[in-house]
């Protein structure tokens, strides 16, 4: 038997949903953003891009150790979706590719970069690193290294929102690879049964480490993965920030109306390797270049801005402002002290059962 290796990202195939005997969400429209909102999307996506490029450099220079997974290419997903959330009450949880989600939730780049370099001023006091960053204050619950674990934990967050009647919605992100994990389906079952307020976001960036989605998934239309649990799903262009925001609006309307969970499959692409130590031999340079040339989310919003009459100078000024903020975060992360050795014994479970 010959297994086909993907030459290009999986194409969308429109398939009629199997679940027909229940109400379904509306097909989302692209979000109609004001000029100010478009500028804010541009600013946030560029911040993530430049932050990640800098993190890559610091890794190369040895300032960052351990694992480091970059979000370059996927910026529209976190920015578009999280811009629709209510930071006062909604919670977010994701996997190890988490810097962009933190930045999109308004967390200070200095605290994130200092976490990457393992410094005491980092958001998790330098003890979490790239994969394990938290800010419960901002309702950001990590940063998880175990593939798929955040789906069950996110379902728990949704349970807490419902139990406490706080009106919040949980957004749990996971990858195409994670979508084949068993605990995801146990979580789906419970979430629908109890009508929990959760948006499951599958960031389908086409690869799980070196394995393409077509090579690993018998049902590669991942938005359909909830159907045997009666959870509806929507497939979204994850390279278009306005499509992402539009989908978030529909998903939130569904969940906030008490109709239970929903799945958003975001079709996206990561430009860099799986982590900093990935030589990316499983795909061609041409494949990556063609996505960069044809679907880059930042270039896309730049075109929208130009059409809205924003001048090149204004965009250049934003670029300069972001470079400055990112450079400052890197300087801070290099210079601020490491945690005191006594910190080895704080915030860890020490005890007997
Ligand atoms: C339970 C578990 N199995 C395997 C791994 C090793 N691993 C880390 S990332 C990864 C691929 C996950 O890919 P995907 O869910 O598509 O997310 P992406 O990296 O593309 O964001 C694997 C297999 C792990 N960390 N945890
Ligand atoms: Mg993936």
Explain what you see.
The structure is a single chain. Helix 1 (35-60) runs parallel beside helix 11. This protein has one domain: 3-Layer(aba) Sandwich (Rossmann fold), CATH 3.40.50. The strands form 2 sheets. The chain has a 5-stranded parallel beta sheet with strand order 1-2-3-7-6, with helices on both faces. A two-stranded antiparallel sheet has the order 4-5. The model is unreliable at 1-9 (pLDDT under 50). Strand 6, helix 8 (241-256) and strand 7 form a beta-alpha-beta unit. The protein is of the alpha/beta class. It has helices at residues 35-60, 75-82, 99-104, 109-116, 149-164, 182-193, 213-216, 241-256, 285-295, 297-307, 312-335, and strands at residues 91-93, 170-175, 198-204, 207-208, 211-212, 233-237, 262-267. Helix content is 40%, strand content 9%. Bound molecules: thiamine diphosphate (TPP) and magnesium ion. Residues 97, 145-147, 175-178, 205, 207-209, 274 line the site of thiamine diphosphate.
Feature tags:
single chain, two-stranded antiparallel sheet, binds magnesium ion, globular, alpha/beta, Rossmann fold, 353 residues, five-stranded parallel β-sheet
At the fourth level of CATH, the homologous superfamily is: Thiamin diphosphate (ThDP)-binding fold, Pyr/PP domains
| Gross CATH architecture | 3-Layer(aba) Sandwich
Mean pLDDT: 93
Order of strands in the sheet with most strands: 1-2-3-7-6
Radius of gyration: 20 Å
Number of helices: 11
From the spread of the alpha carbons, the general shape counts as globular
Uncertain segments: 1-9
